[in-house]
Here is the input.
Amino acid sequence: MIAFAWANRSIIIYDAAYAQYIRDPPLPRSIFELPGARRVALEVNSFSKSIGFTGVRLGWTVVPEELCFDDGTPVRKDWNRITTTVFNGASNIVQHGGLASLDDAGLAEMRATVDYYMENARILRQALLVMGLPVYGGEHAPYLWVRMRGRGSWEAFAEILEKAHVVCTPGVGFGPAGEGFVRFSAFGHRDAIEEAVERLAQVGL
Here is the structure.
């Protein structure tokens, strides 16, 4: 992807909001861990997925000095202009919450929260695999993509909702490549995840 962007004079906007869910140390958490990325990419991140700040609007963008337009103008200048035009900055109380999440106690809670959701993902993944379904994700990510053989995304969604009373997301909602898949989320209470697994096992998929 980096080589393609360089060859085609493109800029990658890399969303690293789920970086804390990557568990294997050898796997990169930032695109800037990869050679050449600083010339072609900027990275956005937030507190939304790691400490539950979704909707609070607190995040950051890393724009390397090496990222420039063809005439040598730094992309950072344009990014700063756009950001300061459309956004007046996070409130003091929101910034205080973000700082609190980065002290020792906050980081410990963040890790515990991520561990909790990843255990939910493990429970879901194991149950879906036992049902004989092809499952992608649930490892290094709190989402699981499940291929529903012989069924379209909306058909599978409706069947799961009507028979098991479990809500998932039709994969085609993410684009044409998602057709034939549904997506399950591990963001939820443990008892709800366990109940959903029991319902899915009872009806079969």
Observations:
- The chain is about 40% helix and 15% strand.
- The two ends are 36 Å apart (CA to CA).
